[in-house]
Amino acid sequence: MLPQPASPIRFRRLLLTGAAGNLGRELRPRLKTYCETLRLSHRSEMGEAGAGEEIMVAGLEDAGAVLGLLKDVDAVVHMGGVSTEQPWDKILAGNIVGAYNLYEAARKNGVKRIVFASSNHVTGFYRQDEVIDSRDPVRPDGLYGLSKAFGENLAQLYWDRYRIETVSLRIGSSFTAPKDRRMLATWMSYDDTERLIVAALTAPVVGHSIIYGMSDNATTWWDNTHAKHIGYRPRDSSDVFRAEVEARLPLLDASDPAVIYQGGAFVRTGPFE
Prior knowledge:
alpha/beta
């Protein structure tokens, strides 16, 4: 975990959705540094609240529950919903209906800043020999990526019509270490994930901004030039893991779609098999 800054940025109440998910569990103790009260939400039980925490169980498809979830909240870190390729009914409930419910609840409660966990799978059908930026057309690699593209469009609508600001984070691969050669390009450390979220919460003006979530990796397919106003500066790099990963996985099948496309295995999973 990052050391606490001398004058930590404070919010009265932050909401973290998806708090029991893999990334949500990592962010829970980190985000508490930046607020008086951290409200934690998931669709299932999360145990007891710690000091300075509130726990509210809510399914994102339940509009009434989500409306109450955003009451008296200063900003939202939205990690909730489906995070992998799944059957359409689950994606529809969590990532389509759930995203709409979240933005409507933000509008009705006067919440003006959302950090939205989008995904690199919004552009997963670009090739690994291409470098793209946030202004290139979306090319989802599955229903999951498609749902995150919807979330980004929803964020744009709520900025244009209701002036609710969003930073959409096209998160790469946030793990302790890269698991494979693809992640040498997509990896983002937990510390850099924290840096990115704090920058997204506190940048003075963002409108609706899109930024790829990655560490300072030597190999990358994503250009964040158009998101420099957010002020995110990664400090970690996958390069410290490169020798071990390449030794463990020395050969790549150049005919494998997971090697050809940026989305990796997502391009050949789910209903498109």
